[in-house]
Amino acid sequence: MDHAIEVTDNPDAKRFEITVDGKLGGFAEYHRLTGRLVFTHTEVDDAFEGQGLGSRLVHDALDSARAAGLSVVPRCPFVARYIERHPEYRDLVAGHRPDAAEPTG
Questions:
Q1: What is the architecture of the domain spanning 5-92?
Q2: Cα gap 62→56, rounded to integer Å
Q3: Angle at CA 89, nearest 5°, toward 78 and 63?
Q4: Alpha-carbon distance 31 to 12, whole Å?
Q5: With contact defined as beta carbons under 8 Å apart, do 19 and 25 qualify?
């Protein structure tokens, strides 16, 4: 069964939200500073665990940051791990040096 999944920025709540068929499935909280988003916490409702919603949420949130020209500070461990596993987002990390050696291992 296909579900309507949508990720939106809710700046009043300072978080990106993911909905499934109109029901809140999770969120990624952030603090917005000049030119950057500091991700502090990501949570997915127990009813939706194991369905990839956390990854979809972070993916879309990072794409939104990129589109807005913002860098990110991944204080949330889930966001940090997502960026580690998806090197195409490493350039968004505040202070990232493209000439720095990539970690081995």
A1: 3-Layer(aba) Sandwich (3.40)
A2: 10
A3: 90
A4: 11
A5: yes
pLDDT confidence band for 105 (50 / 70 / 90): very low
pLDDT tens digits for range 60-72: 999 999 999 999 9
Q: At 42, phi and psi to the nearest 5?
A: -130, 135
CA atoms within 13 A on the CB side of 85: 9
Distances (CA, A) of 19 to 41, 45, 56, 65: 17, 10, 11, 19
In the block, tokens 């499934």 appear at 20
Question: What are the domain boundaries of the chain?
Answer: 5-92
DSSP three-state, residue 8: strand
The CB density around residue 77, as the number of other CB atoms within 10 Å, is 11
